[in-house]
Amino acid sequence: MSLRLSTVILPVDRWHEGGRAKWQRAEELGFHTAYTYDHLSWRTFRDGPWFGALPTLTAAATATTRLRVGTLVTSPNFRHPVTLAKELISLDDVSGGRVTLGIGAGGNGFDATALGQKAWTPRERADRFGEFVPLLDRLLTEDAVTREGALYSAVEARNIPGCVQRPRLPFAVAATGPRGLGLAARYGQAWVTTGDPKLYEEGTPAQSDEALRGQVARLGAACGEIGRDASELDKVLLTAFTPDRSRMLASVDAFVDFAGRHREIGFTEIVVHWPIPDSDFAADQGVFERIATEALRQLG
User: Fold this and answer.
1) What angle do CA 27, 295, 219 make, to 5 degrees?
2) Nearest to residue 10, comparing CAs of 58, 61, 51, 60?
3) 3-class SS at 55?
4) What was the pLDDT predicted at 109?
5) How far apart are the first and last CA of the chain?
6) Is 107 exposed, middle or buried (0-12, 13-18, 19+ CB in 10 A)?
């Protein structure tokens, strides 16, 4: 099974003070896709610089020529399908069809209350995600959409000329629960996971691998329920949230071992965070760049 290597570049740098250079370097290193997080602020970065995802991706698209760009992930926390669709179609046009939309149900972090609402419960997030994805799918594939939903509606929403990528730009759906996996099976061109969060602090790599096998199997079952072949979906692992997160970027050999194990589980794309000093994503830049250029070749 072939394996792709991608990266996440957090939007923490001013564009003309290092931001542009990172995206261009990601292309030079041969990454398949460079993603960014779509948050208003995030965790330990809340009190520092943090720029908007879609403007950042638009700038990245104009600064590169081959690199795919995308969100990992966008959520309903502060987005509406009608306005998001318009921005995505514009970004897909600017990039010449190099955009992937990573999309998830969202969480209870800072984004959940920034617009003044109370944080949604897990059930409310699932309900919203269940309306958000199908409506966004229609908005990106039809010239005009009218739909009255319980949570999201569109009235003669026009999206001409549509996406450069046909029938629309790809969705990478982040999910581990049954409702989200059902959405991934029906609407996704890819599926995204970070692993089992219960194993983050005290789990072992072996336990994490077994949990991921279970997630892949449940995705397969969700695809089977609608008569879809699960091999049609790329399976994306966003790293840094599994028990061996501190070791996988320590050396090229360590990463090759990590990537090989996860390729055997069924993953087709592994995403590593661009190093940020003095953060949870600190790593040796030289080793990181060697991983980008050498690891997949060693895997064969």
Assistant:
1) 85
2) 51
3) helix
4) 87
5) 10
6) middle
